[in-house]
Amino acid sequence: MMNRRAFVAGVALMVAAPPGAVAQPADQVYRIGFLRFGPPPPTWIDALRQGLRELGLVEGQKISIEYGVARSLAQLPEIAEELVRRKVDVVVASGTPSVLPAKNATSTIPVVFVASMDPIATGVVPSLARPGANVTGVTSMYTEAIGKRLQLLAEFLPKLSRIAVLVRDHPDQAQRLREAELAARALGIQLQALRVRDPRDFEGAFNTARGASAVLQLDDALFTANRTLIAELALKNRLPTMVGHRELVEAGGLLAYGADYEYLYRRAAMFVDKILKGAKPADLPIEQPTKFELVINVKTAKALGLTVPSSLLLRADQVIE
Question: E-assigned strands of the chain?
Answer without folding.
Answer: 30-37, 63-70, 90-94, 111-116, 135-139, 162-168, 190-196, 214-217, 241-243, 255-259, 292-297, 318-320
